[in-house]
Amino acid sequence: MNKSHRGYTVKISYFDPLAVFDTIQSELEARLPLSSLHWKPDGGSLKTIDQLPVDLVPSVSGAENALSEDVPFIFIIFVTCSSVQEYRNKVRPLIRKWTPGEETSSDVKQDARIIIPSKYMIFFHCNSEVVDSNLFKSVSLIEKFHRDFPTVKVHEIKTVYKNAKEKQEFWNLTVSLLKNTLLDILEKRLEIFNGELQSKSLSFQDSLVYRENLLRLYLSFNIHEEASIQLTEIESLLLQNGVSELPNGDMEVPFTSEKHSGTIVSIAHSINEGSLTKYVLYKYIFTHQLELLQRLTSTTTDYQNLFQISRAFYSHINKVFLESPNILQFNYFFLETLLSDSLISEGKSKLSKIIYSTFKLEQRDCWLRLVYANTDFRLDSIVFSPNSIRYEDNLLKQTFQSEDIFHNTFIEMTKGLLTSFGKCEGRGQRTMDWLSVQMGMLYFQKKEYRKAFDLLQSCYEFYMESNWDVIGGHLLEIFVKCLLMCPEIEYLENDGESIPVSSILSNCFLNLLIFSKDSKAYWWDEFLKLNNASEANLIYPLDNLFTVKISHNPFLSKPNTYALRIKLENNIVPIAIMVSAIKLSLKNSKDEFLTFLASDQIIKPGSNTFTLETTEISFSTYEVLNLEITVGDTVFSKEFETFAAQDTLVMEELYHHEDFRCTLTNIRKALFNAASLEIKYENKEHIDNFNLQLSALARDTDKPPEFAFNNDKEFPLYQITINDFKIDKIPYFTNGVVGRISLGFDLSFERGNQKFQQYQVLEIDVSLPIAVSVEDIFKKDAFYFKFIISSSSIEMPVIVHSCSLNVNQKYIVSDAFEPDEPIILPAGSSSHYLNYYKIQVKEGYTFDMTDVFELFVNYSTMKEHIDDLVTKKFLSINEGNGKYLFEKWSIFWRHVILPKLIYDYNSFERDKCIILLSDVQPLIRLVKSQILDSSVSKKYYECIKALAAGVQISDYPVQNSVVELNTLTVPVTFPSIKQLFSVQLEPRSSDEYHVGQLIPFDIIIKNLSQNWAITKNDNTYVLEVSNSNEWAINGKRRTVLHSNYLTFLIHLIPLRCGYLTYPKIEIFTSGRTKVMEVDYLNAYETLLVI
Predict the structure, then answer these.
(1) What is its main location (predicted)?
(2) Most exposed: 374, 411, 688, 906, by fewest CB within 10 Å?
(3) Which among 412, 401, 394, 329 has a CA at the least distance from the CA of 367?
(4) How far is CA 363 from CA 313, 335, 352, 988, in A?
(5) Which of the four CATH numbers 2.30.30, 2.60.40, 3.40.30, 2.60.120 does domain 661-765 have?
């Protein structure tokens, strides 16, 4: 902060009768102010005085030693001497006359007077010969000084030095001498003043004198903390001793602070003289507080303190001199004094700029009150309370001699304020706005409409957005009048965009409609006139006029038409509004948009309900993006918050009995190893331009789809289009085993010139819950198929209802299998069901390996039956609104909820108890978040909670279920064979057989190939009978088969008793390839040997 104007300094008085001071003055002043003094108060910590300003005061004699005087700390006499005679006749008499007498030189109290301690010093200058010689025979000059003046410090000064080092040492010594002396005097004076304050009999005035001296002492030495304490004590003393009884006194007009004039008023002195007034007292406190602040570094706290002490002084004076004719001029010039102080006028911080601007604004308003009080000049934007006082204006009269001068002065002052607040780094923006409003209003008052328009354009918007309706509405009305009075303005620039004035005026009319209390119909009429006469293309905030509530409960208003209701409250426009369109836009996480629309509506005053519809929908989760209401060329728009900030809206497929629907499921009549989807059409009458596009979707974004609609692995087909109702089956091909597939389902069609489109992603379970394997059995006159049927799921049982084998007319097949009760196959492959079919060929036909047989397995899953049971038990409602609601949500139940229900099938089969294994909490959250009809949501919730706890049922015969059966078609063929033989061992006698007995057997070999459509080959076949540990072969055991029928004799010897299996017989080709197609009739027979 600026420290040039100081009321208190450390004074050093010098007496220079012999013109010595001039020789060292420049060197001494160059080392002032003194720096880095270290002082430690009693009982306190060491303090550093960074700078100590010193005033060198010329004096011809010692000063008056009194408490009311600012007594110098050091008295110095500058002398020189070159001879004994000069010393005796000139120097010594001068010093004796200058020094105080013995009776006043001590630091004690004499005759009820306090002696203010000071130090007297002799600075003498002589050449080295005089100093070093014994000028007075036995003593030197310095010793002579000490003898003649034992209480005075003697210091030799030099003006000529041997070198720079000597000069530096001399001045270091001199400065150190001054510092130590000053600190010593400071300690002595503090000791005296503080000691006197300890006296219990001390009067108010004496206490005030000592406190003022302590304040002066601390301020002189820049000891700010202690000075502040003393100033507080002085204030407390004055407040306790009748400040309110003091006369008001006279104000200074213009005000001047004493730090500029250098005169410090002593309160104690004023009391003694009877001249103390409230004004003098308040000014004393203010100027001393200001003195303290000016000695500190510029910090935020200092600026705050400056503002506080200035406000306090300002408030005190205005309270005391409230009705004084000079108060306004005093305030003006007092603020002028503050504004000129370098503490804030040169401050670089934001706070200093704010304080400066605040004082400047107060000064302008003070001037304005003076003008209002003394003239009839007025500003429409500023009003003051009426006042009957005629204020003095002699110093400011020239600033408002006429109305034009008044206007110009006001504009210049306000421009200055705008400049000042503009430097406050955004803190004064609102004040700047209001100052701009005041200037704009003055220009409007002067009919300078273009200037008023330029200033008011941004101001009214702020006040409207800040909900300052009265101010904003008034400014807006003036802005509109200015704009209407400036026909040359056709476009306005806003963020680099040119906006037609018609759009601006339409916007303003609507804003005035909102703020107006009695003219709403007028402003709406003005808006409609302009809206119809020009192409304003205005987008206006819908919330300004209407309150909107959007239902999150979609429904089907017509077949394939989804709808939402919105409630709109109109409390602003007092007449009916013709609306051309109401449009609600939604967006999902994939940035896909959904639009609901209603056309040609009427918004009446009060509450309104509208139904918005869409025929083009993608089933997904949406956020509400915006709502637009179109009136003429104006769109009233409301933007909604994002996904994270508000509830979402879930669009699920709903049911309507007249809907045109395409249902895509895994085919119920499946062909083994041939995957297909089944498509069903409902209400396809009157449907035109039907188009269904199916897209194979990848479950992993980094990989292609797991299936395609063709079997070309090099060029897979991932998309097909269906536009023919005759197509009811869609084959597809997978890469390996796939349990579920994802399909993009995009349906479009027309009905009655109305276009419809629906898109959704389908997840279809294509896993086959049943497994079928087949084994072949050859017999000499028949062929047997052995089918092994089991559940392919490790969790879900399968129920087999019937099996049948389809053959062509040349075969005879055994009957189909139709059990009295369906067979339940537990989950897993360990439990299975065997199904045999005997195949015989009719006479004249042969078994053909190219013939295809089809096994039909009619089955269902246990889950399908329990799903059916749960649906009927909990959700069967046959009449009323309940039936409609449950039909509406039936698709969600079938396609979303039921697939997520996992049952305990063991509990169902064992205890006839339906209980869930799946976690029910996600299901409950799903129901509550997506089903928006409360009655349906409640019913679903109760159902899930009941199933979680377990629901006991009575006997549930599966055969009585109406679940639609699945049919698996398994195509089978005869095995591929090249030759077929039958072999039989026939004993020639039926007597008892004994161990070791030679038993004759006939081996009968038949070539059955003529019964099969086998291409004849030239292979030679050899029959072999093998030895074993049970039989020994006697005779020929190998033979070549030359004909289709062959019999030969063989003898077998049994090697042990018991039931012996017949020996092993095999047929090989000549290349030793074993023929597998051999019907060995004795393969599983035994022979009793005793």
Answers:
(1) Golgi
(2) 688
(3) 329
(4) 15, 6, 17, 146
(5) 2.60.40
Tally the residues of the chain: 1090
Domain ranges of the chain: 1-103+113-198, 447-536, 539-650, 661-765, 788-975, 977-1089
Q: What is the pTM of this model?
A: 0.58
Q: How far apart are CA 235 and CA 267, in angstroms?
A: 11
Using DSSP's 3-state secondary structure scheme, residue 396 falls into: coil
Mean pLDDT of 743-753: 93
Q: What distance lies between CA 713 and its chain's CA centroid?
A: 48
Nearest partner of 871 among 944, 774, 955, 781, judged by Cα: 944
Strands 981-987 and 1078-1080: parallel
Class of domain 977-1089: mainly beta
**Same topology between domain 1-103+113-198 and domain 977-1089:** no
Closest CA to 356 of 337, 369, 328: 337
- 616 versus 350: which is more confidently predicted? 616
Give the pLDDT mean for 908-926. Answer: 86
Please give the CATH architecture assigned to the domain spanning 1-103+113-198.
3-Layer(aba) Sandwich (3.40)
The 10s digit of each residue's pLDDT in 287-335 is 888 877 776 655 667 778 888 888 888 898 999 898 899 999 999 999 9
Name the CATH topology of 539-650.
Answer: Immunoglobulin-like (2.60.40)
For the segment 535-560, the average pLDDT, to the nearest whole number, is 88
Q: Choose among 118, 177, 183, 193: nearest CA to 151.
A: 118
CB-count exposure of residue 508 (10 Å: 0-12, 13-18, 19+): buried
Q: Which two tokens stand for residue 1052?
A: 């077998």
Helix axes 934-949, 880-888, angle to 10 degrees: 80
For residues 195-218, give the mean pLDDT: 85
pLDDT for 142 beyond 60: yes
Query: Is 18 in a helix, a strand, or coil?
Result: coil
Band of pLDDT at residue 941, cut at 50, 70 and 90: confident
**pLDDT band at residue 614 under the 50/70/90 scheme:** very high
**Does residue 105 or residue 428 have the better pLDDT?**
428
The three-state (H, E, C) secondary structure of 152-216, written as one string: CEEEECCCCCCCHHHHHHHHHHHHHHHHHHHHHHHHHHHHHHHHHHCCCCCCHHHHHHHHHHHHH
What is the band of 172 on the pLDDT scale with cuts at 50, 70, 90? very high
CB 860 within 8 A of CB 965: yes
Exposure b/e, 1027-1042, CB count within 10 A at least 16 = b: eeebbebeeebebebe
Q: How far apart are CA 944 and CA 927, in angstroms?
A: 10
Count CB neighbours of 487 within 10 A: 8
Q: Is the pLDDT of residue 103 over 50?
A: no
Q: What is the mean pLDDT of the chain?
A: 85
Q: Which residues of 33-63 are buried (b: 16+ CB within 10 A; e: fewer)?
A: bbeebebeeeeeeebebeebbbbbeebeebb
DSSP 704-765: --SEESSS-SSS---EEEE--TT--EEE-EESS--SEEEEEEEEEEEETTEEEEEEEEEEEE
Given a contact cutoff of 8 angstroms between Cβ atoms, the answer to whether 822 and 857 are in contact is: no
Per DSSP, helices labelled H in 568-713 are none
Q: What percent of the chain has pLDDT over 70?
A: 90
pLDDT over 70 at 878, yes or no: no
* CA-closest candidate to residue 1022, choices 1073, 987, 1080: 1073
Residues 610/601, Cβ–Cβ less than 8 Å: yes
Instruction: Please state, in angstroms and rounded to a whole number, the distance separating the CA atoms of residues 238 and 127.
Output: 58
How far from 847 is each of 622, 780, 852, 1013, CA to CA, in Å?
A: 64, 12, 11, 6
Task: Report d(CA 117, CA 190) in Å as an integer.
Answer: 10
pLDDT digits (tens, 9 = 90+) for 224-283: 888 888 888 888 888 777 667 788 888 888 888 654 344 456 787 788 777 888 888 888
